[in-house]
Design a protein that fits this description.
By secondary structure, this protein is of the alpha/beta class. It has helices spanning about 5-25, 30-40, 50-60, 75-85, 100-110, 125-130, 150-160, 185-200; strands at about 65-70, 90-95, 120, 135-140, 160-170, 205-210, 215-220. Helices cover about 45% and strands about 20% of the residues. The longest helix is centred in the first third of the chain and has 19 residues, at about 5-25.
Length: about 220
Amino acid sequence: MRQLRGQERVITANRQTSWAFADAFVAEDEALHVARERAHELGLRPVSPGTGAALRLLAAAADAKAVAEIGTGTGVSGMYLLHGMRPDGVLTTVDPEPERQQFAREAFRQAGFATNRARFIPGRALDVLPRLADGGYDLVFCDGDRLESLGVLAESLRLLRPGGLVCFEGVFADGRTVDSAAQPAEVLRVRELLRAVRESQELMSTLLPVGDGLLCAVRRG
C-alpha cells in the first residue's frame, strides 16, 4: 500500500474531522436518543445524525407526502423522515422484524407524531414493495438487506412519481466498497447498485459522504 505523504495525511485527517463535525452539528431530541440507544442494544446500526439530517432535508425539499422506508429499525431514520415530510404526510415503513417496529411505534409516539402518520408493514422488502401503488411515492429510502438492493431499486423506479427520490444508506460499506481486496457478496452487490444508478437513464444521482455513504437519485420526469 502506498504511504501517505505529510500533506495527504493532513487532508485525510481533516476530512475525517469534518465528517465527525457534520454529525456533531445535528442536534437530536430525547426521542431520537432513546431510539438510537435501543438500536445499539439490539445490535442494530441506525443512521448517523448527519445521514438523518440529510434525509430530513431531502424529504422537506421534495415536499414529501408519501415516503416508503425499507428497514424500520427502532425508528431513528423514520423520525428524521417524518420531521421533513409535510404535516399530513404518511410514512410506510417495512421491516422483517415486528419487534423492531414496535420500538419504532413507541419512538414515534414519544416524538409526538400522530398514529396515522406511519403505516407499519412487517415482511421482506421484495415481498411487500410489489403490493404498493405505482407512482404513489415522493421518496423511497432503503436501509435494508444489501443483497436485495437491485430488486429494491427496480421497485423504487415503479413506486416513485417523476421527480421523486430514492436513497440507499451504507453504500461505503465501511470502506469495503472501494477496497481492492476480495469482498463478500453484499459488497459486490453494492458495487452493482452504484453502477446501475450511475448508468441509469431514468435517474440523476449523487453520492453524499454522510454516515456510511448515502446514495441519492432523482427519477427524471
